[in-house]
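Dear colleague,

Thank you for sharing your sequence with our group. We've completed the structure prediction you requested, and as agreed, I am returning the results in plain text so they can be pasted directly into your records. Please verify that the sequence below matches your submission; if there's any discrepancy, let me know and we will rerun it promptly.
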Amino acid sequence: MSNIRHKIHGLTRDIGFPVRRLLPAAAARTVGPFVFFDHMGPVEFDAGTTEGDVRPHPHIGLATVTYLFSGAMMHRDSLGVVQRITPGAVNWMAAGRGIVHSERIPDDIREQKVPVHGLQMWVALPADQEDGAPLFHHYAADEMPDTVVGGARLHVLAGSAFGVSSPVQTASPTLYVAGSTTDGATLEIAAEVQERAVYVVRGEVSLDGERLEAGTLAILEPGAAVTLQAEGETVFMILGGAPLDGPRFVWWNFVSTSRDKIEAAKQAWNARDKSVFPDIPGESEWIPLPTH
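Please find the predicted structure tokens below.
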């Protein structure tokens, strides 16, 4: 019997650069607290352009988690935070009742033609933290615990796994691990958290003998340990955690337990209500509310 519940290949779309969306999907809306999963790039951006820049936009009820394999992005938000995001670092932004941020490609990355390649995740905040104050935490790459197990090099980005614990402060039990392997390396993924998934970023792996190609998200059966074996050099992610404390509504950049809160956020953004969505210092652009 397979220990893979679902295989999700996602849909790739061009938003000025290629993005593969894995969550939400028809087969699964969430994995643990993760409600959104985009794989962006790799892509090079031309100097002297704004290609790849994401203008100021709002969030409520979630935490964004950005992780890069190459390139860099410049984060700015309505808290006044200005942070360059670099490979291996973890950037955790909790929107709470409302935050605005932008993500832009630095000039040196454009000029040097460095490919931008990474993952953007959204984690739904627990219901009792949805209306909390927004916050941003940056954790440098060298703060992430690094361990080698069965020939796999592992960076534990959130939660505890493989004998080490991440310093990242999460709102609910969360597991997030970046892994890389050489050919033939094996790794047992324990059933320490209730909901888990494995995503293949590059190369191929097998899970209990079932082959997964790059771009595949495999959602695992609860309670079963699985063995990952690398087919050549691979990069993969392990994600999951405790199930959400109830269903979530997701509309555009808003996540909430309540449709009414999403409607209120839409109205506040349309009205440019700075008591809900303050301006970002140094930014003058914004993304309008979608019409559908």
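Summary note from our side: Residues 4-241 form a domain with the Jelly Rolls fold (CATH 2.60.120.10).

Kind regards,
the structure core
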